[in-house]
Amino acid sequence: KECAEDEYDKIRPRKLNKKLLKDSGVPLSSKPCCIMGYSDIDGILRAEMPCGCSFASDTMFQYMKSLFDKNLKAVKPICPVSKDECRGNDKQREWQWGLVFAVADLSDREIARFTKAIENRLGSTKNCPHCGAVTERNDDVRISRVRCTACNGRDWCWNCAKVWNHSGLGPICGNKGCMADRLNALLKPENCGTMATPSRSYWYTNNNGKLIVQTRACPKCLCLLEFVDACKHIKCVSCPHQFCFNCIGEWGKDGGCNHSKKCEYSGPQYFV
């Protein structure tokens, strides 16, 4: 299985995060859960999905597990309520993964596991969001900004298939719920871990022993890199970029960083 049992969080009560739902534009539902029948009497909150159906967090999580375990080709979450009972049209019944993740109360670890499984299933082809043409990207290409040669429509993001909403060619498209949100979650100190600033001579900094994060994203390609040992000079394993683990400055360049520069800790990275 792509998401084995030990890759889920240990059994815990799942509940809707009101703030996260509000940020995602999802209202609470007053109707009973369409699958399990939970209501206000049970004290369990439900979210109103775009199709109008009502789902509790645990119900959504179990649906996701079932979707991945029983359908090895599934890449889109579609409302499991029958069309006879669901009021939504086909577009409303097809949900966005970011919305499903929020309702299912997934942890950052679970999001990373599900996202990897989804990307593996999607492979190297996707449908253009403008004209529907099949678009292919070579496996060794890391640029996420795509333009369909069939319709020559606006650039779109390979990861979320939405119109590109950011500058540059990197993985950050600017759309909510896509790569930036995933990276920000993974790079939080409570998720990536912290360590005391190494006291070695080649860690020349102004940190004074403060705690720093253990994981950085390469400033160029956003590959996640965990510090294990040695100096602050980092050579990305995914692209040619070299940078300082402490200040994120480009290594050896004017205005960048080097072994003799006493640099300042830049804090956890945050992408917009």
What is the structure about, briefly put?
With 272 residues, the chain is α+β, with helices and mostly antiparallel strands. The chain has helices spanning 18-23, 57-70, 90-93, 97-103, 108-122, 179-186, 189-192, and strands at residues 47-48, 54-55, 125-127, 134-136, 145-146, 156-157, 194-196, 211-213, 215-217, 224-226, 233-235, 242-244.
Quickly give the structural class.
Answer: alpha+beta
The SSE string, one letter per element, is: HEEHHHHEEEEHHEEEEEE
The 3D shape can be described as globular
How much beta, percentage-wise? 5-15%
Give average pLDDT, whole number. Answer: 83
* Main sheet strand line-up: 1-2
Our count of helices gives 7
Distance between the first and last residues' Cα: 33 Å
Strand tally: 12
Helix content: 10-25%
The residue ranges in which pLDDT falls below 50 over 5 or more consecutive positions are 1-7
For the biggest sheet, the summary is: 2 strands, antiparallel
Rg, rounded, reads 22 Å
Write up what this structure looks like.
- The chain has 272 residues and is an alpha+beta fold.
- It is built from 7 helices and 12 strands.
- The protein has helices spanning 18-23, 57-70, 90-93, 97-103, 108-122, 179-186, 189-192, and strands spanning 47-48, 54-55, 125-127, 134-136, 145-146, 156-157, 194-196, 211-213, 215-217, 224-226, 233-235, 242-244.
